[in-house]
Amino acid sequence: MADNYANTADKSVLWDWLTTVDHKKIAIMYLIAGTLFFVKAGVMALFMRIQLMRPEMEFITGQTFNELITMHGTIMLFLAATPLIFAFMNFAVPLQIGARDVAFPFVNALGFWIFFFGGLLLSVSWFFGGGPDAGWTSYVPLASREHGGLGIDFYVLGLQVSGIGTLVSGINFIVTIINMRAPGMTMMRLPLFVWTTLVVSILIVFAFTPLAAGLALLMLDRIFGGQFFIPGMDGNVVLWQHIFWIFGHPEVYILVLPAFGIISEVIPAFSRKRLFGYSAMVFATLVIAFLGFMVWVHHMFTVGIGPVANSIFAIATMAIAVPTGIKIFNWLFTMWGGKLTFNTAMLCASSFVPTFVLGGVTGVMLAMAPVDHLYHDTYFVVAHFHYIIIGGIVLGLFAALFYWYPKMFGHKLNEALGKWMFWLFYIGFHLTFFVQHILGLIGMQRRIYTYLEGQGMATMNMISTIGTFIMAFAVVLLVFNVVYSAYKSERITERDPWDARTLEWATNTPVPEYNFAQTPQVRSLDPWFYEKVHGDGTMKPAEPLDDIHMPNGSILPFMIGLGLFIGGFGFIMMNMENPIVPPLLVVILGAVLTFGSMGLRSIKEDHGYNIPLERIKKIEKEAS
Amino acid sequence: MGENLSQPFEKSAMSKDERIQLEREKRIQITAFAFMISLTLLAFIATGSEIIPAVFTVPFIVGLAVIQFFLQLFYFMHLKDKNHAWPNMMMVSGVFLSTPTIIALALLLGETKF
């Protein structure tokens, strides 16, 4: 019953985390899961760079190399970057709009567990005859049932499952941002990170559905004898490329727009100025999102679609440079004349700007369809998208980690170690990828596992590998920093350690499970800054202090995820040589688990619980 | 707070006007549904019977699909109702994004190169 006060502290630690629906805890789980996948894919990158260190190395075989490139790309995009971004969205968005939680806390937990089990399904492929090996784009006919191995089935089902999780979380964020804003928090007062989250969630809804459809078609082809992508049976291989890139190009913006949002939070905070051109930033975000859907054919210039189609998509692609340029200049003007503090978060955020411009310039170069025939499938492309992903997204994530860490964990990360990490990472990154531009231009193809002596590629590949090791060392330093700071760093009890501007800094540290004892009244853009300057330094309440109604935790999201994992594995077993148990049985078991849990959720009455007034008063008194 | 959450309501909390409104809404929904089923039946008949030529069938079915599409959006998904600005926005942007995509795909996957 609702009045039985269920304290989360009464549960054991493990059970609490498995059943939690609290957005702050889910954020930390996303953070941990994303970091694990990030490290895993990073180690794969190290193996590949060792293999490419010298001509004709025999560190790993070509087959293993193919599996490594595929898994590196797939994991980094779907299972590392996406959850890490979701971690910060989950943590910051409800706090920044003055909400107690996301709109559907249960669905939030469901999104995490489905993503997690999807990732696990993809990862177990190593134990069943090797990972997928057709590249992260998994082009047919290479990935068709005729040519692709069992690994591709893990790719198809794993991404299908984790895609459901992402989709579910995206819908949740849209509803949260539209419906859960505190009084006075109008759309044009939303912090830019919330704006980018909203736009990205809309992109997820529109982009992950084509991916789900494409993966379903590929699954039908591979497991159930379909013929969508088999040319000899009236299928069309180019269709897969279209479907994949209709998803794939927006996916790039799904990842980079939140990074833009993070940068737009961190730079004003450490420049002591409001964001320059707020409405232009919002407008640019919307335009980028829209144009992002109209450019997918620029990944397929060399397919032979024809000059008119290529030109249209080339021009549309170049048009994206305009709103992106608006953003770049707005960040520069925010810093211009500001009182700058260069701590680790700001170092990452400010160096994001030039690095991202470098990636953007090569992007416009690649958009020129005629020259693309020269660049296509060379290391130039590899260098380009790593400048966007590492120079853009990863630096943004580092900035977010250092910026929000005190709010998330109650202590800051060590600044000295942080700065060392930043400079090592930055130098290592440019060493690794700058030379790859030139490698691409002199003709080194991507996805090749070795090259010959005397092709003029040995020195630059060596430099690139050295850079990778410096980057890897920087990441080890970051992990060390996390552990070191957990023991040595001073506990933070103040609300606002950075003297920042947005609403999340108005909450107590550590954030109580109900976030705000009273929903705040928002009176301006950058509400917390406004109250500090024009008010008395506290948020004006929009409601009297009262009992707070909270949702109960539930194990069902975990069970639904587990069911999808088992069901997905059952489908893969249909392609195995001698499965120990009949595959259909496994599929049915998974379906029973998933749909049974869903049914249980529908039947079982669950009204949540109340946190009584006295307890809230006690928590608030202890914190202040 | 919260003792009677599991008890069912004995009487509706709606006013008489609201109930009349709801009845009308229900009638419109059922009418729209019946109309859409009949459109679907027409499509089946057009393809199933051998008398009607294919030249007629294809544009006919596409026309039916367009009508279906708007009926779905406005009646089944309540876009005609008030206070549906956000769902409207999402639907319109979805249509806005998917239309050029579908046209481009139809053109690019054909035999003709542009």
Automatic annotation (TrEMBL), chain A:
Signal sequence residues: none
This enzyme's EC code(s): 7.1.1.9
GO cellular component terms given for this protein: plasma membrane
Subcellular location: Cell membrane
Protein's UniProt keywords contain Heme: yes
Gene3D superfamilies reported in the protein's UniProt record: 1.10.287.70, Cytochrome c oxidase-like, subunit I domain
Molecular functions (GO terms): cytochrome-c oxidase activity; heme binding; metal ion binding
GO BP field: electron transport coupled proton transport; oxidative phosphorylation; respiratory electron transport chain
Record carries keyword Cell membrane: yes
Catalytic activity as recorded in UniProt: 4 Fe(II)-[cytochrome c] + O2 + 8 H(+)(in) = 4 Fe(III)-[cytochrome c] + 2 H2O + 4 H(+)(out)
Transmembrane segments: 27-48, 68-93, 105-128, 154-180, 192-219, 239-263, 275-296, 308-333, 345-369, 381-405, 417-442, 462-487, 555-574, 580-600
Segments forming domain Cytochrome oxidase subunit I profile: 9-523
Function per UniProt: Cytochrome c oxidase is the component of the respiratory chain that catalyzes the reduction of oxygen to water. Subunits 1-3 form the functional core of the enzyme complex. CO I is the catalytic subunit of the enzyme. Electrons originating in cytochrome c are transferred via the copper A center of subunit 2 and heme A of subunit 1 to the bimetallic center formed by heme A3 and copper B.
Protein name (record): Cytochrome c oxidase subunit 1
Protein's organism: Salsuginibacillus halophilus
TrEMBL record, chain B:
A cellular-component GO term for this protein: plasma membrane
UniProtKB keywords: Cell membrane, Membrane, Transmembrane, Transmembrane helix
InterPro entries named among the record's database cross-references: Cyt_c_oxidase_su4_prok (IPR005171)
Localization annotation: Cell membrane
Keyword DNA-binding recorded: no
Topology of the protein relative to the lipid bilayer: Multi-pass membrane protein
Main location: membrane
Keyword Cell membrane assigned: yes
Pfam families found in the cross-reference section: COX4_pro (PF03626)
Transmembrane intervals: 28-45, 51-77, 89-109
Name the record gives this protein: Cytochrome c oxidase subunit 4
Organism name: Salsuginibacillus halophilus
Lineage, uppermost ranks: Bacteria, Bacillati, Bacillota, Bacilli, Bacillales
